[in-house]
Amino acid sequence: MRVALNLLYLIPGVVGGTETYARSLIHGIAALDDENEYVVFLNKFAADIDITPGPNFRRMICPFVPLRRMVRYGWEQGILPFQLGRERIDIVHSLGYVAPLAARSRQIVSVHDLNFLSHEGWGTSHGRRILEFLVKRSVRRADHVITMSEFARGGLIHELGVPPEKVSVTHEAAGRHLENPDPATRSSYHPAGGRPYIIAFSALSMHKNIARLVSAFEQIQDIVPHSLVVVGNLPGNADYRRKLRAKAGRRIHFTGYLSNADIASALKGASLFAFPSLYEGFGLPVIEAQQAGIPVTCSAVAALPEVAGSGAHYFDPLSVESIAAALRKCLLDPDLREVLVREGYNNARRFSWEKTARETLAIYEAIAARKAETAA
């Protein structure tokens, strides 16, 4: 069987959890399958990433720059179908929401969430409408749809009308750099200058709710010795980011992009992981924090209760007061902290990339068998 993995969306260091998903899933598949052939389609920016981990994996670099989505969509819809035909691909798995609609191969598409339907963070409103158009047609065209939680599966069924039997859940897991840290790349990075700290992850999307977290921390900073460290790209437009950065100082730190090694080090050194997101189709950073043995407090919305389980203390992400109360309790209650670490670690053990890879391979085999039956 010849399988194409469509990673044309991948911009290293920018696309966040969908990059972790692609890298970790592919390495998981490579550890289990040395028989099928895999062709990984990448854009120029992702040409050098570690994404072909076995002799049965081959990369195909598509010579475009993906910074503008319309360029990527144009290649994906206009040129990729011809490339797939030339490569005699049996199944194409698009890992980032959008599939090549005109491809003749059997198709699988991974839709991580439906955030673009109701939240900012996918560029302009015009851009979100284009993405919605393409995702709706991708799930309709696909032979099967993969998503990351029962919450997200329910959205695909009820909001996009995907038949239930056509959607499978394959959970994500902690990033490979956290599950199996490489001793050669270990870091001693400390983002708060020796002070204990709360850590949070940001992204370009407004739904990460960083402004409310900062306001909540400002409410408690006089009663705890901790700093707040926010890792990753700040959300919003230039004016919004400027207002956030104005709050940076001795107790509030915005690190920007960090390497995997520095993220692992920063997580290990944190006193608390806070995740105030308004919407998540899975919530991978929560599992990564639990895997690292850090107490977790997070939003009680979307897929987060399903994923974090009993290993998190929950709050209302729309209430600054609720976030502040959760931060204060999780920092000052040692019994709660002990429970959160224990339950969080046990919860994280439910998820592994080996399991995800096995489930994904089973979907490939089922789709291939369906193709064989149709041909017969």
Architecture overview:
With 376 residues, this protein is an alpha/beta fold. It has two domains: 2-173 and 352-375, Glycogen Phosphorylase B (Rossmann fold); 178-348, Glycogen Phosphorylase B (Rossmann fold). The protein contains 14 helices and 13 strands. The protein has helices spanning 17-32, 69-78, 80-86, 125-141, 150-159, 176-179, 210-220, 238-245, 260-269, 284-291, 304-308, 320-332, 334-348, 353-375; strands at 2-6, 37-43, 57-62, 91-94, 106-110, 144-147, 167-169, 197-201, 227-231, 252-256, 272-275, 296-299, 313-315. The chain has a seven-stranded parallel beta sheet with strand order 3-2-1-4-5-6-7, with helices on both faces. It has a six-stranded parallel beta sheet with strand order 10-9-8-11-12-13, with helices on both faces. β6 (144-147), α5 (150-159) and β7 form a beta-alpha-beta unit. α1 crosses α14 and α7 crosses α12. The radius of gyration is 21 Å and the shape is globular. The two termini are 17 Å apart.
Q: What's this, in brief?
A:
With 376 residues, the protein is of the alpha/beta class.
What is the helix content?
Answer: 40-55%
In N-to-C order, the SSE pattern is: EHEEHHEEHEHEHEHEHEHEHEHEHHH
CATH H-level homologous superfamily name of the largest domain: Glycogen Phosphorylase B
Query: Can you tell me the CATH architecture of the largest domain?
Result: 3-Layer(aba) Sandwich
Q: In angstroms, what is the radius of gyration?
A: 21 Å
How many strand segments?
13
Structural class call reads alpha/beta
